[in-house]
Amino acid sequence: MGGLYMANRVVEKIKKGLRGELVIPGDKSVSHRSVMFSALGDTPVRITNFLPSADCLSTVGVMRSLGAKVEMLSPTELVVTGNGLHGLKEPETLLDAGNSGTTLRLMMGMLAPQDFVSVFTGDSSLHKRPMGRVIKPLSQMGAHIVGRAGNTKLPITVVPAGKKLQGFTYDMPVASAQVKSAILLAGLFAEGTTTVVEPYQSRNHTELMLESFGVKLDYEGTAISIQAQDKLTAPEEILVPGDISSAAFWLVAASVIPDSELLLKNVGINPTRTGILDVLNDMGADITLTNERSSGSEPVADILVRSASLHGTSFGADIMPRLVDEIPAITVAAMFAEGETVITGAGELRVKETDRIQAISDQFNKLCSCITATKDGLIIRGGSQNVWQQGTCFSYDDHRIAMTLAIAGMAGNGVEIEQPDCVAISYPSFYEEMAGLY
Ligand code: S3P
């Protein structure tokens, strides 16, 4: 398969379509939770298809500091043995969440009820991200958490609350799986019932996994309730599905690069994550799900994607939690589609690893002046006029921006990516897979 190569970090134009099969690596959200929740059990849990990315390894480091035993049998296979639900140990060092918002936010929920001190740090991106959204509701439950910038930013210290946290009902102002999960984890230890009410349903991996650990959750509309537990009953094995957020880059690349046909194997298709399939289908994509099956408590499928003539679309807040991480990749689909794509209700993108609305518009406008950033979204003018001479774009050290630039480079006339190595946060083998497609 000739045509694509990367040299000096330059992605050259694909001369032929993308063809072949890719096995999609483990899901980041599920990998984090598999280690965290297993560390609350008291029997060994074998985790397979774990994502050995920098973010998930931050979670492994944090759980080890809290006394869990994590044996790496291979990069993708671990055995985690906890000391029971009430067996976490006071960490002797700082808990470093690295670049990972999921690690920090979920762990604040798990540590707020503990009777020891824990101090969190992270990288420069994580120091800028809003943590008040978790600290505020946990404080309403009685937690004592202090942080910089009026208890909203890292560094953050969790001190013992001095008494049991109190269950309560929290109407979440933003649909966020991280906030929801933090409160449910605190609810595992709180007095009475803890209820979270979401404006729109966010990814439900925490709920599915807690249930597989024997926790009974109650659902009413978009409200989820949990009670304190004496113990968690860990399953013997957790099989992590492939990450649809990683598959997203290939779904878009194969859709827009003529003469492509890719089979993406073992992709998680949990309905709370499949917004990208709905949007691409709506744009005219040629996507077929095959071999649908279960991977533990999560549904998976192989996805066949062929190139297609895409057209613009519009979507907003209601679908956002189901595709929030895929907006950068969807932007590339929109650039190569006929007509305009209007994305609204995406304000959360401004507080991800970087401000992704600004990053997308600033970098792609260097190539083709086809994007208008709005307060909470993007307007993308797609079409064949979007051609550029090979350009240089900055990743902002944000993994999803780097991979988005790479697929734009594959589909267009090449993009040189500044700071490309951040793909290791969620998809360490991304460039290798890409090189293997030519
Ligand atoms: C995640 C939830 C989402 C997502 C992030 C992972 C999770 O964040 O963007 O990459 O694992 O719970 P929010 O919950 O902040 O929307």
UniProtKB/TrEMBL annotation:
Q: Which GO terms describe its biological process?
A: amino acid biosynthetic process; aromatic amino acid family biosynthetic process; chorismate biosynthetic process
| Localization (cell) | Cytoplasm
Keyword tags: Amino-acid biosynthesis, Aromatic amino acid biosynthesis, Cytoplasm, Transferase
Question: Which molecular function term from Gene Ontology is one that the record holds?
Answer: 3-phosphoshikimate 1-carboxyvinyltransferase activity
A Pfam family annotated for this UniProt entry: EPSP_synthase
The pathway noted for it is: Metabolic intermediate biosynthesis; chorismate biosynthesis; chorismate from D-erythrose 4-phosphate and phosphoenolpyruvate: step 6/7
Superkingdom of the organism of origin: Bacteria
**Keyword match Metal-binding:** no
What residues bind phosphoenolpyruvate, as annotated?
A: K28, G101, R129, Q178, R356, R400
**Listed GO cellular component terms?**
cytoplasm
Catalytic site: D325
The catalytic activity, as recorded, is: 3-phosphoshikimate + phosphoenolpyruvate = 5-O-(1-carboxyvinyl)-3-phosphoshikimate + phosphate
In the Enzyme Commission scheme, what number(s) does this protein have?
2.5.1.19
Indicate which residues the UniProt annotation says bind 3-phosphoshikimate: K28, S29, R33, S176, Q178, D325, K352
Tell me where in this chain the Enolpyruvate transferase domain is found: 15-434
Matches recorded under CDD domains = EPSP_synthase
SUPFAM superfamilies, per this entry?
EPT/RTPC-like
Q: Which residues form a coiled coil?
A: none
UniProt similarity note? Belongs to the EPSP synthase family.
What the protein does comes down to: Catalyzes the transfer of the enolpyruvyl moiety of phosphoenolpyruvate (PEP) to the 5-hydroxyl of shikimate-3-phosphate (S3P) to produce enolpyruvyl shikimate-3-phosphate and inorganic phosphate.
Query: Quaternary form?
Result: Monomer.
Q: What is this protein called?
A: 3-phosphoshikimate 1-carboxyvinyltransferase
Species whose genome carries this gene? Anaerovibrio slackiae
Its gene? aroA
